[in-house]
Write a structure and sequence with these properties.
Largest sheet: 7 strands, mixed
Oligomer: single chain
Number of strands: 27
Structural class: alpha/beta
Strand order of the largest sheet: 7-6-9-8-10-11-12
Shape: flat
CATH superfamily of the largest domain: Succinyl-CoA synthetase domains
Number of helices: 24
CATH architecture of the largest domain: 3-Layer(aba) Sandwich
Distance between the termini: 18 Å
CATH class of the largest domain: Alpha Beta
Amino acid sequence: MSGPGPGLSPLFAPRGIAVVGASRSPGKLGATLARSLAPFAARGGHLALVNSRDETMHPTVRAAADAGPVDLVMICVPAAACAGVVADAAEAGVRAAVVCGGGFAEAGGPGIEYQQRIAKIVAETGIRVLGPNTSGFLAPHAGVTASFVPGVAGVRPGRVAVVAASGGVNHAVSFLLTEAGHGVSLAVGLGNGVDVSAPDVLEHLADDEHTGAIALHVESVADGPRLVDAVRRVTPRRPVVALVVGRNDIGAFAASHTGALATSWRTTRAALAQAGAVLVDDERELVDAVGALSVVRARPAADPSVGVVTAQAGPGLLLLDDLRGRGARIPELAPATQQRLSELLPPLTFQRNPVDTGRPGPELGDILATVSGDPGVDVIAGYALHEPDAVDLVAAVKGGRTPGVPMVLGVGGAGDQVTADRRALLDAGVAVATDARGVAAATSALLADARAQARPATGVLDREVPTGVAGAHDEHQAKNLLDALGITTMPRRACASRTEARAALDELGGAVAVKILDAAVLHKTEIGGVHLGVKTPEELEVALDALDAAGARRYLVEAMAPSGVDLVLGVRRDPVFGPVAVLGLGGTTAEALADVAVRLAPLSPDEAAGMADELAGRALLHSWRGGPAVDPADLGQVVAAVGAVLVANPGIDELEINPLRLTRDGLVALDAVLIGKEAGDAQPDQ
């Protein structure tokens, strides 16, 4: 894949388009594309049909360009011939091409070479290429329907851009957005991404006046840092909602789909969230979330809260349950707010938050205004059935809005008037959903976006990071590095003989851990290489005998640590995103529990401190049943420091502390593994 080239305006807003492989046969791909692009010609765009075997059409791209401006060629010929067409287009001065159809890297065999030929031409000429293996794109505001998928003409212009790895997902989401009343500003299926990639399109959309929010669908990532950088730069102006494929094992199918391996689901999601994107789990949530964010954003807030107003108790309970399941904060309303609500509502209705109106009536607008005016409410989530005899819902909502407090409203019902009212609410800047789940998904997206905007990227590492670290380290050497970082370890002695081990037991006093000391042994417990609670000379001899039987040549004798909660902290070099930090609960069971938080390194201490809040077992870190409590600032410094070591030392491939024990006196590293990069492979991180 190439780096960023010329801008994408010739692709997405062309003055003229040539369809290469156009046909008179209605079922042919070229004929379908020509029909889809007919409205572009009707609006005054130059549309040229190219087929050397049809005398009624232009014989070449050059001839089409001589007849009028051609910025874009749509290529509908067999895979083997596509590279030649791209080369001809570049030579004719065309600046962009879409390579439709398949038969490239995703098909294997000769298709790999076909795709490589296109990549070579891109590198040599600078022409921008979308695809291959794509169904095209939609740019309704520009009048361009560059797609052969039936029904695309019905996708209305809107304020949501879709950037999808898959052409099928691109169209599916575009149709759903249209059904939801949103429409699209641009919808792109990247296909195999030989040139134009998600970062390219995100950068193009950053200043697009028609785009309010971006739906991003990710299957694989070729350049992780560039994707993260693009998301980070666009989110302050255009919120990004990301759906990442690959929670479960789909590698073989994914490879056959685009010719690229699916990337790490957990790492990709973490990287996108760290860059400021909102994460969702399926395409329905993607539509609800990005649709809401295209209408309104909440103000930046570290811990935003929700005021819930429901006109029907049943759907209100569904909404409340879903919001709480997503971790939304729903505080009790202020006394003054409750007093005012008691004047507006019957006494038997619930009024503390959520607020149940019993049935929508003329007072609904005042109720919404009262709740949204509460000083502890950042976002309103509401639900009401469409009951025009009881209340004019649109007027009530418009009258009940408070500036700076966005509203997400579920409007239940069917029929043209319901659709019209939903549309009117959207036009008024109110996010709309059709059911309680949609309201919860949209509200959760507003909250996540508000937190992302407020997320601290500050904080200074309060310790110096060693450089020049390389090669394999045994546990004692790795802990020396941790000592230099100011990370607490237990008193220990590296022993080259049994005599030294005996002296260490006497010197350290009390119970000790006796371990095999060998940089080549990464999982000591699996070979019987760790013996805990050794107190007497007799117990030491038994432990040393067992270590000798396991192949030990050196020993580590270390004072036993106090009890506490075990965590795992590791940093490694991800092949796509570079240095990655992982924090989790569980110590030796961390892999089985998979309760981890992930961040790209380097990261600030403040960013690192927030990782613990993402763990399912986070309650264990806050004086659970009288246990120790974590100091977030201390944890942030430790995580940031370990991440900084990997960034500053290209000779290290991985550094792990497992367990990192939380004790009453703070964090203590009980074991450490440092894996050096193979000689010749170490390169500084960019």
